[in-house]
Amino acid sequence: MVGAWPLLAVLVVQAALSLRLVRADTAFEDEATYLWAGHLQWAHWLHGTPIPPFPAYFSGAPVLYPPLGALADSIGGLAAARILSLAFMLGATVLVWGTAGRLHGRRAAFFAAALFAVAGPTLHLGAFATYDALSVLLIALAAWFVVRAGERREGTGWMAAAGVTLAVANAAAYSSALFDLVVLALAVLTALPAGGRVAARRCVVLLIVLATLLTAGSLAGGSSYLTGIKQTTLARVAGGDSPLSVLTHAWSWIGLVTILAVCAVIISWASREGWARTSLLAVLAAAAVLGPIEQAHLHTLASLNKHVGLGIWFAAIAAGYAVNRFIAAAPAGRNQALTQIACVVALAFPITLGASQARTFSTDWPNASSFLAIFRPLAGHSTGHLLVEDAAIARYYLPSGSQWQRWSSTRNIVLPSGASTGGPGSAAGVTGAGNAGVFAEFITRGYFSFVALNFTDTTALDRQIAADLRHSRHYHIVDVVPYGIEIPPLGQGTYVIWRYEPR
Q1: Residue in 343, 221, 272 with CA at minimum distance from that of residue 229
Q2: DSSP state of 175
């Protein structure tokens, strides 16, 4: 395969499959939260507007991706913010092409790029306005830097660049730190042919730059950032999903690439290519399971389809090597050409599978259009406080969302000062349900002008709040709004809206 035309073809297919998802659904809660926070961050920078303590509960630095996403959102709404993520993921595909090409040749680069580009999680992140696509791009760039240094004896500049990029990636998404060791291993293994001292020196430079920047960033951010890192990453509360279910779901999304990556390790070992090459392929293959194993340990399926995206990037490089060796094993000439064509045609399977999975990922939450249409005038014509179960969606879409002190969720209550109360206990993490007793107290006081519950995320608390509202003489149901799609036998979800009407 000559030139960059094969890469261009891969990028076109990837872009087309992700673009069809850009308007597949209304914003997911995470998308709404980060874009809304980005707009508030800009208002804070430009006008000194007070903002919530985002660093204390965000799983990435709120000053990095959210403002970038908000800029795109200001230009073209949610679609533009999602297209920004597509640009990040296309960049990651270019980097997997470049990295695999340097390690294993142009043909391996094509198949590595193709397998990564059409994977379901990749296509989904290319139409999902969160920090995940940015973190994939930055980790990929850091890996390219260390591989770019190659066997040359002087690679200090490349290692410094990789350290800076890793630090920014870790700040953008704290969970990406899991892959720092993979990049570090690549730096050592690709430098070994130049000598052990060269490899050790590169390792030290990379670690010093990374550790210095992360330490400086933590000190500059202060205690709120340290709290956010602890609650969302280091001491994240475990969920209720079984490890087997986590691994089973992950396997259905990344199984093909993982099998090919493992085959690459076996081929290299059987061919006696040297322990450095085989170890490098083993590291790349192992990266595929880092995310699933971590989430299996935490017993949670939440965001699993996003967190496997980084592992796929590394494993695809090994998978490309395996396909390349399979083609090279065919007799030179016509037979090898036919084998190569057959492998290209076989990509129809991962393309079809990835497109189907990505569609499911991108429509796996209720459409909020009907609820927003009803709640918009209620929130807009009121100046009181609002309690909404999934407040992030309404805050993002409605103009009154900029008045963040008015909005509370069933996670916590926001006071007029901007401080919070009624949040989850420490054992529930930052996503647990709020304190039912505190909510009852505020309902008794008539603190909320409107209350909207959908009885899904915090079901037990919702039922208690609904009971408190029914016992009150001042709260009355004003609307029951269908939302989402019909899910037999559960039926269609509904938002129940109460209004405070003092007598």
Answers
A1: 221
A2: G
Alpha helix ranges (H) inside 222-333 = 223-229, 243-270, 275-297, 304-307, 309-328
Report CA 395 to chain centroid distance, whole Å. 21
Helix (H, G, I), strand (E, B) or coil at 197: helix
Residues 367 and 25: beta-carbon distance below 8 Å: yes
Q: Which tokens is 105 given?
A: 């040749």
133: tokens are 């696509």
Tokens of 329: 């094993």
CA distance 172 to 137: 11
Strands annotated E in 84-193:
none
SS3 366: coil
* Interior angle at CA 135, CA 130 and CA 139, nearest 5: 165
Residue the block writes with tokens 């874009």: 35
Q: Partners of 388 in the beta sheet?
A: 452
Distance (Å, rounded) from C-alpha 99 to C-alpha 314? 10
Q: Give the per-residue pLDDT at 81.
A: 98
Neighbours of 216 (CB within 10 A): 11
DSSP track, 24-85: SSSPPHHHHHHHHHHHHHHHHHHH------GGGT-SS-TTTHHHHHHHHHHHHHHHHHHHHH
Residue tagged 């390690």 (tokens):
103
3-state secondary structure of 365: coil
Name the token pair of 101.
Answer: 């090409």
Average pLDDT per consecutive 10 residues, the chain (503 residues; last block may be shorter)? 82 97 94 97 95 91 96 97 98 97 94 97 97 97 93 83 97 94 95 88 94 93 86 76 89 94 96 90 95 86 84 97 95 91 95 96 89 93 92 94 92 87 51 82 94 88 94 92 61 84 81
List residues bridging with 47 in a β-sheet: none
The b-or-e profile of 479-489 (16+ CB within 10 A means b, else e) is: bebebbeeeee
| 3-state helix, strand and coil shares in percent for the chain, rounded to the nearest 5 | 70, 10, 25
Contacts of 296 (CB under 8 A, 6+ apart): 243, 244, 246, 247
* Structure letter (DSSP) for residue 13: H
Dihedral class, residue 502 (left if φ above 0, else alpha if ψ from -120 to 50, else beta): beta
Neighbours of 477 (CB within 10 A): 13
Distance CA 468, CA 447 (A): 13
pLDDT of residue 234: 75
Amino acid, single-letter form, for residue 181: L
Output the six-digit token pair for 153.
Answer: 């004896």
